[in-house]
Predict the structure.
Amino acid sequence: MAKRLGTISLLSSWSFYVFLRAELLRCGKALRTVAPALEHENEDVKEQAHLAATAQFFYALGLLYTRGIIIPPEVPGASSRAEEPSPVTACEVFGEALERFAREQGVGRGIGRELGELSEKARLCFRALAPESDQLERVRDENTRLGNRKKVVNA
């Protein structure tokens, strides 16, 4: 009976690994696919692309977390904001790094190097997707104005 449970456990962990690899590859491709729309002329398209890229980014981080891989937002010696690429480039580069990591973790070569690269690309992608503080202030001001207009209309 113990052998049978061990086999089931081994099969389920293997199937989870296969699922995880496929999902990481899919996230990488999705990030690379949606990246060009981040600089689209149409603001609605740009906003939808930003939402899609952000969702894929955090889904990928969640998948990595299930393997015990935690990517901190900042580490000593990380690049400064002046060196950071555009959101399009950051998403494409993180997508490529994610796909490369998913492909090579099964082979077992260069995992440390790949993990370091993946962490740096993830941080760059996050900073590129995260709204700047002045953008947050504009959104808050706009929401406040809309709230005040609703109060005036309802009065």
User: Anything to note?
Assistant: The helical segments are 2-34, 43-66, 87-107, 111-129, 133-154. Residues 2-34 form the longest helix (33 residues). Residues 2-154 form one domain.
